[in-house]
Write a structure and sequence with these properties.
Elements lengths: L13 H13 L2 E5 L6 H12 L3 E6 L11 E4 L2 H18 L1
Parallel strand pairs: 1-2, 2-3
Length: about 100
């Protein structure tokens, strides 16, 4: 038995690729969390977003394959960065 996941080196099913393409076209911006984008299946999403002229931000603890293509790169652990953003948002809500 094989689980319903894509293993490293396997091909992503065509229907999943088409679903991602449709989602990239409809999104306002792309936020990438915790990946170097080494696999082409992940990097391809960035390339699609670049072609569609979408804003792209990455949060990661190291360099990524797409660093030269994106609008914003934040160096750090996702949990640390996202919790700080959450705290800023909560602080703004309490001021209103």
């Amino acid at each position: 038995m094989k689980p319903d996941i894509v293993f490293f080196g396997d091909n992503v099913p065509h229907d999943k690729v088409q679903n991602v393409k449709a989602n990239v076209e409809s999104l306002d911006a792309l936020l990438i969390l915790g990946t170097t984008l080494t696999t082409f299946s992940a990097y391809r999403i960035v390339l699609q977003a670049v072609d569609a002229k979408k804003s792209i931000a990455i949060v990661n603890i190291g360099k990524t394959r797409a660093d030269e293509l994106i609008n914003l790169r934040i160096e750090g652990r996702c949990g640390d960065i996202l919790s700080k953003i959450w705290q800023l948002n909560v602080s703004k809500d309490s001021i209103r």
